[in-house]
Structure formats: structure tokens, C-alpha cells
Amino acid sequence: MSDSLSPQLLALNFCKNPLCADFGSLNAANYSLSLSINNPQIACVSCHSISPIISPTELNEEVTAQLEHMNLGLTACTNEQCENVGLNVQLHPSRYYAFGFSGDKQRYRCKSCQKTIVDRFSVKNPNLKTHVTILALLLTGFSLKEIAAKLKIQAKTLNDHIKSMATICRQKSSVFDHHWHNKGQHFHLGSDWNLLQPKSHNGVLWICTADLDSHYIALQSLNLSEQENITGHRFIGSDFLASINTAPPPPKSSTLRDILESMSTGHQERSHRNNPLHNQTQLNYPAKSSLVSPIYCTAAHYLRLNHSLGNKEQVVISMSFEPMLADAAMLSFNAMRQKQSLDLLYQLDDEKWTEGKAGSKPQIFKFKGSEVPWSLSEQWHLRGKADQRAICQLVESNLTQKQAHQLPKLSPVTHYMDRFHAMFKSSVNEPRRKRRPEGLLPLLDIYRAWNNLCHQEKPGETPAVNAGISEKPLSLDQLLQ
Ligand SMILES: [Zn+2]
Ligand SMILES: [Zn+2]
């Protein structure tokens, strides 16, 4: 790592404290560095906040690794050095020549680097019927073992089918994602995170961002890398364990104030506030893959999103109260913040908060440990207690406090993750999968495509239909053909 504060280093490591006079400053004079090899840190001279340095090179490697997974098996150039890498033939036909056939599959050649690609999607899926049956069984909660037994096939064969279904789903998603990115100038996004396998203690985090207007899941990332020989700050080594185990106190009551106070105490007890994996005194480290440090995975998640959205007039990102999400979004969307087109906020709603219904005038409120002010509004009922919403505006460009309190709920993204845990319970909790979390990757690709394109929240309404990028829901046949 360079020992000077290069612009590239500052672009990721600027002060992210909204209360600081130098919040977001890219002026090297405002910072001091401590370059210990194990733990290089940067301090803001104004507010004295200290953070581990994020390396531009390593973050770039994480972005590339996430893109590689997403583009695996698509009909697109696979040459890392080529400008067409990952660009679908279907969406970018002008970048490729038709180049004969391989068997009966269409072949293409990249105009930029001359690499040839076979389009596996140019012929009908020969296993369509089996794939539809497998997906239907998965969606009704059957375990992989039960499905293999029902279809009288080996576990390995089932696994191959699921991988092939995942590739088809990634291909479908890539086309709809492209239309979603181009659907307009104003985006209202919501992010949340969860443990991928909550009972497995394997340190695998799952980060999701949804379009809160349509509930389209825009992007999901795991802090998991299939790279085996790991070095550098991007990774958490297999020897990583916290020395202390100070679980935050449970909230004193179910009011938002007490929940926030308890979460905030938990954040303060971490070695760094943007690392939710601090506090793991036990970790079932994945056997065949490596854990990526949470801030690298999350920053790459938002950098990809920022890159695909391009120059939009207005982006609002609501997120659950998690500094890992906030820090990562701030550094990834910093250019948009400087142009005043970004609003970033923490949002917590009572479960029964009603979207679209006016609440009371927001009141500033503080709880023990809160530095940045929050505001609270209430929806009153004739009987019973009021429903509350708490908001903390971290980056304010266009939204007034009142408008922030009228935003849609964050719950669709949370429910998306909860539903996966419920539907795929047997695979998620299977004991042998504790140390083999990468086996869930194909299921996640299938689940996201199904959720966006097939799953009807109301009759005829899928997230893609609601986003105006699909005319009607896709049947399982259409999804997998
Ligand atoms: Zn500062
Ligand atoms: Zn190429």
C-alpha cells in the first residue's frame, strides 16, 4: 500500500462522520496515516475518527470477483482485459459478429478482442421439464435430498441441474437488470443485510438492495470468495476470532428508541463500527472458500450498483441501522453526493407502519449513544399504541425531513431475505453446509430471478411488472427456457 495519501486512497477513505466539519473532504491535509503493516489506519484531523484503510487495489479485485460470478456462463466476452467483458450479446449486438455454429449453437466473436463465445441459450433448454419440476419442488420447500429421491437421480446430477438453472437465471436477470437500470432518472433504493445461514456461525453475510417502489431486487452480494490462497486486507483469515464476546444487551422494550439504543451499543463494542463480524468468538470457517471482509464486500456491492446506474438525477438509499452499509454506500456514491443527487438515510419502522399514510410532524430525538440526530414520527390510531418511524439522514441533498418520513417502507428487502430462509430452510440449515456455504450460490441466483420475474405479490404483479420492465409475470417455463 502506498504510504502517501493519493487521490485514489482518499476517494475511499475520507471522513464519513456526518457531524464532522470535514465530512467527505478529499483534502489530504485533513488526515493523518498510521501505516502499521497489519492494520494501516487513517484518522480525520477534525473529528479524530479512526478507520482501517480500504485499499483501492484490493477493492477493485473484489468488484472484479463479484462481476465474474454474475457473468459466469453468460453469452458475453470473458476476457478480463477487454472492454466488452460481461456485456451480453443479446443487449450489445453491435459489439459482436455472428461467427458460425458450434454444433447447433450459435457462435459469436468479440469485435474488440476476437475471442469467440458459444451461445448456449441459442437452443432450447433440453432439460426444461426437469428444471421446472425441480424449481417447483424447491419453491414448495422440499429439500435437495427429497428432490433427488423423488426424481430418482443422484445428488451430483441434481447439483448439475441446479447449476445449469442458475446460469439460465443469471442470463434472464442480466437482461431485466439492464432494463431496470435504464428505467428512469429517479431511484429509491433500500438495503439490508443478514447472515446467510443464521444458525451456522460461518461469518457469511448477505447484502441486498431493492428498488423500494417496485420491490425489484437490484443486487445481492455475499462476502464469500472462491479464491483459496488468500492474502491482504480484503480477506478475513481462518484464524480470525474476536477475543471478547460482549453481545449487546437486548432492547429494554420493543419501542424503536430502545431497539436503536441497543443496536447502537452493539456498534460501539465492535473493533470498528463497520465490521459486524467483530464479536464472533466462534467461526466455522468455510472449507473451500474464503471470507471477504464485510466492508470490502459491501463497498463492491454499491460500486457495482453505482456503475450500472450511471448518471442519475436523484438516488435515495434507505438502509437498516448498520454502519457497514452506510460507510460503503458513502464511499461508493461519493461523486453523486458531491453533485447533490444522493440522499442516504437509516430507516426503522414499526412493523405495522402503513406506507402512504401521513404520520405526525417529525420530532428530533436522541437515545443513549446516538451522535447524529434522528427524527421520529407517529401514525396514531383510535385505540392502542401509535406506530412509529425513525429516520437518520446521513447525507441530505434533496429530501426534507418531512419527505423522508413519507418514503416507502424498507421491509420488502428484509422480507425477501426472510422468505429465502423460510423457503430454503432445509438447505440453509443442513449441518454439512455450515462449512460449504458456496453451495447456496446457485440457489440464490435462481431465487432472485424467480422473485423478480415470477413471484406475484398481488395477482399479475411481479416486481419486474411493477417496475415497468416486464409486461406480465413469467411462468416457470418461461424463466427456465
Ligand atoms: Zn471527520
Ligand atoms: Zn472481448
Q: In words, what does this structure look like?
A:
The structure is a single chain. It is built from 15 helices and 17 strands. The termini are far apart. The protein has helices at residues 7-13, 56-71, 128-139, 144-151, 155-181, 256-268, 294-309, 323-332, 334-338, 401-404, 411-423, 425-429, 441-453, 463-466, 476-480; strands at residues 31-34, 41-44, 50-52, 96-102, 105-110, 116-118, 186-195, 205-211, 217-222, 224-225, 235-236, 290-292, 314-319, 342-349, 363-365, 374-379, 387-395. The protein binds zinc ion (2 copies). One zinc ion binds at residues 15, 17, 20, 22, 44, 46-47, 49. It comes from Vibrio breoganii. This is IS1 family transposase. Residues 262-281 are annotated as: Disordered.
Please render the helix and strand layout as text.
Blueprint (H helix, E strand, L loop, with lengths): L6 H7 L17 E4 L6 E4 L5 E3 L3 H16 L24 E7 L2 E6 L5 E3 L9 H12 L4 H8 L3 H27 L4 E10 L9 E7 L5 E6 L1 E2 L9 E2 L19 H13 L21 E3 L1 H16 L4 E6 L3 H10 L1 H5 L3 E8 L13 E3 L8 E6 L7 E9 L5 H4 L6 H13 L1 H5 L11 H13 L9 H4 L9 H5 L1
Parallel strand pairs: 7-13, 13-14
Antiparallel strand pairs: 1-2, 2-3, 4-5, 5-6, 7-8, 8-9, 10-12, 11-12, 14-17, 15-16, 16-17
